[in-house]
Records
---
Amino acid sequence: MVRYLFLLVASFLVWSMSSFAQDADTRKIYALIDDYSKARETRDTVLLKTILTDDIDQLVSNGEWRYGLRAAIQGMMESSTANPGSRTLTVEKVRFMDAHTAIADARYEIRNPDGTVRKMWSSFTVVQRKEKWKIAAIRNMLPAGAK
């Protein structure tokens, strides 16, 4: 009986510690996406270089693929210039694949200078590298029929 109680308590402690760690990582991932949004809004390439992996890949809503840090940042800057407006990312959920990989799904809106809003979705694959969360992949989608 004592052995059973010990195993039950030990299992609960392991579960609660992993749950606490995942909550902390979830908050870090929300902050990471906020940093990405801020970097895009202010065109901060220095910040982008610290939050994106070197081998990042990005699929944007027009179907263009960007491979690698240099191409991704260049494409982001060109996109911000060609499509001016205020960008907002709102994380809807974070799903962990394992302790070092997660997917963050976000609503992505661009408020155009004329007041119209382009409503899209973004999914971010994030990885933990040396205790820091970074963005490894971005998928932007403009839902069919959306404007």
Note: The helical segments are 2-42, 45-51, 69-82.
---
Amino acid sequence: MPAARPGRPRSESSRLSILVATGELLVEQGYDRLTLVDIAARAGVGKQTLYRWWPSKASLVADCVLENVVRFEPVVVAPESSALAAIRTWLDASRALLAQPDQAALFRGLSAAASSDESARGKLAERFTEPLIGGIDRALQSGIASGEIRVDVATEPLAELLIGAMMFTLMRGEPVGADWADGILTVITRGIAAAPAS
């Protein structure tokens, strides 16, 4: 009995064309208006090629960014002498990144992809969400150890709240201004700062 014939192998040039087209259209149109028909047309391939290689639009968008065809690197909190200063630096750097229209569009698209597809959500969490939360969590833990932050602060939920606040503001289509960062930091400082030593 003859061996089963393998399926048609991927064409690397077609695959890259599809990923590039996806990134371009995601920035131009946004995730909601992005269609596989438009991607196929811009990439110069048949729509069935996309369906054969990716199970959903979300997984295609995720691969587009995960393979660095389109660059999106969220800012991760870096250690500083003060935990609150590190968070402020992160807020300012993230605000500057998301003030760029193409980066804001990519961020919205990735968020939508993660919310609609379990496979995409897992890939994007490993690449983006977990490092973001981990960086903030480590900064807060450092602040607890140094006495800057109260010992009873739940650091990981607070990290999720900080990221969620930025996502919510961005999803409303509003620019994340310096006054927003000031307000966030004021609330955080009042809520978690350790009382001065008497």
Note: The first helix runs from residue 12 to 29.
---
Amino acid sequence: MPAIGVVFVVLGLLSVANGGWMLAHAPTWYDSMPGVTDVGPYNGHFVRDIGLAYAVSGVGFVWCAFNLRRCWPVVVGQALWATGHAVLHVLDMFAGRLPLTHWIVDAPGVLLPGLVLGLLAMPAVWRIVNPQARAAHDATAT
């Protein structure tokens, strides 16, 4: 499996695990995740809604890992979710809804995934990291 496939499996498993935790134990997830209490009071329904989004996203990542030739539209959807999530956090910091130091907490789980997936959604980058997409592109370009 190409490296990007391995990355998608890891992201998928982490996303499904996080989403499952949010769905099954929303109060524990809310109290345990660094920085989450900064965004407002606990709302179990909202945590479970977001947990469902993470679980579905994780399934999408795993599907992508085994369908690299045709998964780019799913990658774009993943990028829209992750990049939008990251942009929302940055905007909240600049608007004063989150402390400016929150970027330290957000960097590994929100900002970095948004940046990486945003880059992967660019066709030129996607062809570089995905040998199957590059081969399909080269075949249609000739």
Note: Residues 3-141 form one domain.
---
Amino acid sequence: MRKHDRVLRLAVALGRLRARLRDEARAGLSGLPLAHLTILKHLRAEGPSTAAALAAAEHVSQQAVAQRLAALEQGGLVRRRPDPTDGRKWLVSLTAAGTSRLDAVAASRDAWLVRAVDAAFTPAERAELDRAVVLLERLADVRLGPDAAIR
């Protein structure tokens, strides 16, 4: 197989798997739009944030974020409190219910992946998959410089 064909197949397979994992995560949302999930994920990863910072991170208008935050707050998934450094601003943070919702989404996605691996692969193939995961982890960590060595 030519190098180009290999990397193209790898890119397509990874893209398809990522899309499928995203679809399975959405299935665990029970009605929560994906745009709301991204806000919850951002708050979990980055901590409390202003609406302006969330809008910039999500590349959407502050008005769009404000609407999403209102729905999330109404659902008890986020809370707002005055910014202690600037009383004109509000900080938005994840609630325990928001954290639980994110955990449920991840659990749903992970459960699908476990079932899919068990259904798709024989025990011997699962051992091959374990080895492939090690290679993919190594690939994800590669930092190529101008003098990168070829193996």
Note: The mean pLDDT is 91.
